[in-house]
Please model this.
Amino acid sequence: MEIERLTDAARDNLLADLPRWRLGADGASIHRQFRFTDFSQAFAFITRVALLAEQQNHHPEWSNVYNRVDINLTTHDAGGLSERDRVLAHSIDRLVA
Amino acid sequence: MEIERLTDAARDNLLADLPRWRLGADGASIHRQFRFTDFSQAFAFITRVALLAEQQNHHPEWSNVYNRVDINLTTHDAGGLSERDRVLAHSIDRLVA
Model:
């Protein structure tokens, strides 16, 4: 299945739809930072995101330092943002809603 | 408990003792990259490292992109490398030995 990159208009819609995510400097990714009380809480979240990623067959680029988790979403096969990023970002937001 | 930074000589010993780890440009951290067959294998490893980190109360700065895991170890309380980094690095190496 080919994955299409979002048009500029669709990308603007995505950003409006995901107010807690920021567009990367390259315009090809979105980013959100999460903070928890400690590593254990952060890792519980990381584990739930990992399960979402496998379920959706779409994986984040992410990093963790103790209680902080930084998540970047992009779709390499599309050369930028795609609907997959929107879906995964919404799923992640629901975990911490 | 105060955590002491390793002396330069002790740091050289640590590096000799951990041939798969590289000293960071700042001289205050060590780094190793791991590659797996897919995200599932990478995340299994990530989970095991998380358990080690909690057990040792010493946590990595790390990132993951699909099958790749990058781990940086440093001891902020010591302002550089300490014995905690040596211990955690050895524990991580044993997971993939």
